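Researcher: Quick test of sequence recovery. C-alpha cells follow.
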C-alpha cells in the first residue's frame, strides 16, 4: 500500500467534526503477475491492512464540539419548491450559524449568497454536504468527491421517496442543529473503486482516474441483440464465464437498487460486502453471490463475446469495453458518511394509536424496507383491516 493511500485513509478517519467511532478497511491494490496459461488474472495473494481507530472520550468530545465551517449545497433541478427551500435554508444558516461559508456547484442556477465550488484536488475544503432532492442527488453529491474522503452528507427529500433520504425538508432546522451541536449519528456507506484495463492489462486513464460508485457498476449488452460473454475473476481466481445480458457488482447500499430488480439479495448497508448479480443469465444455476469487502472482482469481456459491453456506474454511462478489456472492482477506502434520522429523534414523541415507533427508535433501513419496499406485505389491504373485527 502506498504511503499516499494510507495518508488519505487516515485523514478520512479524522475528517468529520461529528462524534463517532469509525472503522474503515483499507486494502492494497492487487498486483497482477504476468499472465499464466489459461488465467490472465492469476495474482499473488492480496495483503490487507485494517486501519481502525477508536477515539478516546476526550478526542470524541473535542471533535463533537467542532462545528462545520463550510457547507456545500447540492440540489436537483431548481423547481419552485426547491428554490424556496434553498432560500429558506440559506437564510437560516446565515442567521443561526454566522461565519459558515456556503458553496454551490458551478451551474447557472447558483443560489444567491452561495459561492461557486468546483471539485478537484485544489477544491475548497467542505465540512458538510447538504442535498435537496432524491437518491440520485445524493449519488451525484458523492461522485463530486471521487478523489478522496467524502464529507458527512445531510440529505433532505423534496417530496420524493428513497432509501437514502432520512430527513424531510421540513426538518432541516433540527437536522442542522444536530450537526452543529455534535449530536449527529453517521452510517458509513461503502463505495466501490473501479479501474479499467485494456487487452494487455494496461490501465486505461491516469493514475487518479478511478471511478468511485455508491450503488453499483453494471456491465450490459446495451442495444446489441447478442448476449455478453464475461469472464469473472475473484481475487485472481477464475470464478465462471457468464453468458448473460450483463453482470452487476453492487454495494450493500445498491442492493436495493438495480441489483434488487435483477434478483439480488437485500443487504444491510452497515455490512462490508460486495454483491455479484447476473442480469438474465443463460444458465439457471447462476445465482447471486456475496463476497467480503476485501475481495477484488474483475470482469473481463471474453474473447468469444460477439459484442462489446456498455458500462454504467450509479446510472451514468461511462465506458464501452471491447472483447479482451476488463474492469476491476474493489472496496474503496472512502465511504460515504450519511447522517441518520436518529440524530433528531425525540424519545417519547410517538403518538398513541399510531403504528410503528417514533423517528430514530428504529433502524432507518428497517423503516425503509417496510415503507418503501412493502417487505413481505400480505395480500390483505390495511384499509380493509380497519373494518375487520379485532381478534
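Model:
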Amino acid at each position: 500500500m502506498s504511503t499516499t493511500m494510507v495518508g488519505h485513509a487516515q485523514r478520512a478517519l479524522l475528517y468529520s467534526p461529528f462524534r463517532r467511532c469509525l472503522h474503515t478497511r483499507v486494502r492494497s491494490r492487487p498486483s497482477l503477475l504476468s499472465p499464466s496459461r489459461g488465467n490472465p488474472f492469476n495474482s499473488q495473494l492480496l495483503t490487507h491492512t485494517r486501519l481502525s481507530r477508536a477515539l478516546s472520550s476526550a478526542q470524541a468530545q473535542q471533535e463533537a464540539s467542532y462545528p462545520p465551517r463550510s457547507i456545500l449545497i447540492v440540489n436537483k433541478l431548481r423547481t419552485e419548491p426547491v428554490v424556496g427551500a434553498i432560500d429558506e435554508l440559506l437564510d437560516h444558516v446565515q442567521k443561526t450559524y454566522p461565519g459558515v461559508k456556503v458553496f454551490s456547484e458551478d451551474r447557472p442556477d447558483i443560489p444567491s449568497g452561495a459561492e461557486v465550488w468546483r471539485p478537484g484536488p485544489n477544491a475548497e475544503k467542505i465540512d458538510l454536504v447538504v442535498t435537496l432532492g432524491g437518491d440520485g442527488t445524493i449519488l451525484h453529491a458523492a461522485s463530486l468527491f471521487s478523489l478522496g474522503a467524502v464529507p458527512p452528507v445531510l440529505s433532505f427529500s423534496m417530496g420524493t421517496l428513497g432509501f437514502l433520504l432520512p430527513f424531510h425538508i421540513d426538518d432541516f432546522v433540527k437536522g442542522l442543529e444536530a450537526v452543529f451541536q455534535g449530536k449527529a449519528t453517521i452510517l458509513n456507506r461503502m463505495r466501490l473503486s473501479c479501474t479499467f484495463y485494456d487487452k494487455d492489462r494496461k490501465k486505461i486513464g491516469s493514475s487518479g482516474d478511478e471511478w468511485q460508485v455508491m450503488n453499483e457498476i453494471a456491465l450490459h449488452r446495451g442495444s446489441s441483440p447478442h448476449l455478453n460473454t464475461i469472464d469473472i475473476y475473484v481475487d485472481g481466481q477464475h470464478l465462471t464465464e457468464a453468458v448473460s445480458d450483463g453482470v452487476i457488482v453492487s454495494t450493500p447500499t445498491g442492493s436495493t437498487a438495480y441489483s434488487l430488480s435483477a434478483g439480488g439479495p437485500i443487504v444491510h448497508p452497515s455490512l462490508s460486502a460486495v454483491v455479484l448479480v447476473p442480469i438474465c443469465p443463460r444458465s439457471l444455476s447462476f445465482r447471486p453471490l456475496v463476497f467480503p469487502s476485501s475481495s477484488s472482482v474483475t470482469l473481463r469481456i471474453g474473447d468469444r463475446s460477439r459484442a462489446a459491453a456498455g458500462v454504467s456506474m450509479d446510472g451514468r454511462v461511462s465506458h464501452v469495453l471491447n472483447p479482451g478489456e476488463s474492469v476491476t472492482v474493489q472496496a474503496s477506502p472512502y465511504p460515504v458518511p450519511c447522517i441518520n434520522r436518529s440524530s433528531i429523534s425525540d424519545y417519547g414523541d410517538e403518538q398513541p394509536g399510531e403504528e410503528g415507533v417514533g423517528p430514530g427508535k428504529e433502524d432507518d433501513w428497517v423503516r425503509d424496507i417496510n415503507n418503501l419496499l412493502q417487505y413481505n406485505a400480505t395480500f390483505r389491504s390495511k384499509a380493509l383491516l380497519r373494518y375487520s373485527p379485532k381478534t
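The helical segments are 3-13, 57-64, 80-96, 135-143, 172-180, 258-261, 364-371, 382-385.
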